[in-house]
Amino acid sequence: MERDLGLVGYNPDSRRDPAVAFHIRVQESDREIPFHHHRKGQLILALHGGITCEVAQAMWMVPPTSAVWIPGGMPHSNRATASARLCFLFIEPGAVLMPDRCCTLRISPLVRELILALARRPMEQLEEEATRRLIQVLFDELPGQPEQQFCLPVSEHPRIRLMVASMVQEPGSRRTLAEWATELAMSERSLARLVLRETGLSFRRWRQQLQLIQALRLLIGGQTVQQVAGALGYDSTTAFITMFKKGLGQTPGRYLASMYPE
Fold it and tell me: Given 24, 107, 109, 223, which is the most exposed site by the fewest CB atoms within 10 A?
């Protein structure tokens, strides 16, 4: 089933099928879905382009070859890159053992094809025996998909939320911890402790994680490495590539090549 994002008109909770999937094509004017939730758990698979999901305490980046898992009942918002192609898989609570928290999963080629095969089945075929066997194979494979670190820990603390909003709106800003502390009327040490307590990461590592998410989003959206380096405020492309490689283990070029193999 293929639908336009923003024009779905389908309530995943209206039926109790163990699993249902459909394709999404993102239109230029329909790139963001505000906070909402479902009874069913949701797996969002990026086929082309990428999508950022936000929940109360974290932001998740979903590049191609990966998916984000959102447990049932958890409020979340989605923001896709322009012209992205996605696949949504909704799973009935208790149908298969999945994490009880949001996480990004690296999806194997087999699981990807199983989800796509299910998405091609019309609604009237969901109760057929062949579809049930397909879903069972999918459920056998899903719990074994490894987690990936595409998460930015966030909290409800107003100062943390303010910092995240500012960094997202001004990705090229290179404000230091000391500069943030001055703006927030705190000592540098107090702010460092706050970030560590609320996110589990040092300020430097936390900001770098946000930059990696922003970098992936811009690269997947079609910007060059040089353009992304400039957009994130790096003085040189080399410095940006070094940061990217430290965070993800590959240069931006190699990483993108692994997402879109020939």
Answer: 109
Question: Looking at the structure, do residues 110 and 187 belong to the same domain, yes or no?
Answer: no
Residues 194 and 141 in one domain: no
Domain boundary among 148, 172, 198: 148
Same domain, 120 and 188: no
The CATH number of residue 206's host domain is 1.10.10.60
Nearest to 116 by CA among 42, 22, 49, 24: 22
Whole-number Å distance between alpha carbons of 33 and 19: 22
| CB within 8 Å of 151: residues ≥ 6 apart | 58, 59, 60, 61, 102, 103, 104, 209
Q: CA 95: distance to chain centroid?
A: 23
Q: Which residues pair with 80 in a beta bridge?
A: 51
Distance, in Å, from the CA atom of 12 to the CA atom of 60, rounded to the nearest integer, reads 22
Query: Do 27 and 142 lie in a common domain?
Result: yes
Locate tokens 């990705």: which residue? 171
